[in-house]
Amino acid sequence: MGNAWIKKSLIRSGVLPLISRFTGHGVAILMYHSVMNDPASEELTLGGIIHSTKVFREQMEVVARYFNAVSLDDVLLFLQGKKTLPAKAVVITFDDGYADNYQAAKDILSPLGIPAVFYVTVDCIERQRLPWPSLLRHAFLTSKKNSWPEAPGMEWPLISAQQRIQAFDRASEHCSKLSGGPQGEYVESIQQQLGTAPPRPTQRLMMTWEEVRGLGRSGHTVGSHTMTHPNIAYVTESEARAEMLGAKNKLEQELAAPVVHFSYPCPALQPHWREHTVSASREIGYQTAVTTNGGLVRRHHNPLSLRRIRPTKTVDGLRWNLECAFLGRTV
Ligand SMILES: [Zn+2]
Fold this sequence. Notes:
Blueprint: H1 4-13, H2 15-20, E1 27-32, E2 34-36, E3 50-52, H3 53-66, E4 68-69, H4 72-79, E5 89-96, H5 99-112, E6 116-120, H6 122-126, H7 132-142, E7 147-151, E8 154-157, H8 161-175, H9 180-194, H10 209-217, E9 221-224, H11 237-255, E10 261-263, H12 275-284, E11 288-294, E12 306-308, H13 315-326
Parallel strand pairs: 1-5, 2-3, 4-5, 5-6, 6-9, 10-11, 11-12
Antiparallel strand pairs: 7-8
Helix pairs in contact: 3-5, 3-13, 7-8, 7-9, 11-12
Bound molecules: zinc ion.
């Protein structure tokens, strides 16, 4: 879509912001995961979900300067018809609970006055262990084996980088349907088959409970991202309920405060939420839930299945995507 020069000229001309003032209100909820000085340092585990600290800082400066950062509680009031929001309202969210959320992102967000939501995977905090997609990714990318025997007579070659990713995707499809103990056993079985040890990062990668509490004390919102990060739409209804309720209870115990915001993990398979999970989330006591379905949140949308926007890895790209979203276009 267009070239960088045209995009930049349109943004600088002021035409896009002018038009978006007349196209009705919506909210852009941005979905981040991790912020690191050197994203390549965790390429074998987190992969493409890391933003560089420099780009993240500049993206947040763009949000502070050209958009209006609001809290998720304000969005809930907006959806309930109890509050109007400023034009071009943006919510910043983080999934999973990485240590850099506290150690890097917080210190960029707070001075700019941007409130954020941090959705924490409880088991990953409690056991100081990466979410399972990163463990599987590490196993498939570092294995010295030439193939992975998914089943008798079903070998996946592991020669090229592309083949390793294909096998990783295949294993992820299976693992995303598992939660709790069986999920952990599956990850260990893959590590055994591939002859790899769990990753040993040079720095602590998940937040501690004290850091999670620190985010709350800094005025940010802490939400739930399940216990063990399954695809909630593919586990049984009772497993889905246990993941959503267990995480809410544990977070409320650790934070000594209500936790009413939920984020659906989205590993491997679509959909990642269903009507019955929306009902269950409401019964359990969540007031909002975010998905990874793309687009703006509009006033008539269900608070328990909110859309989000994936932020690009460039500063101009983020501004362009937000301006276009507020114009009602998807790019
Ligand atoms: Zn996640």
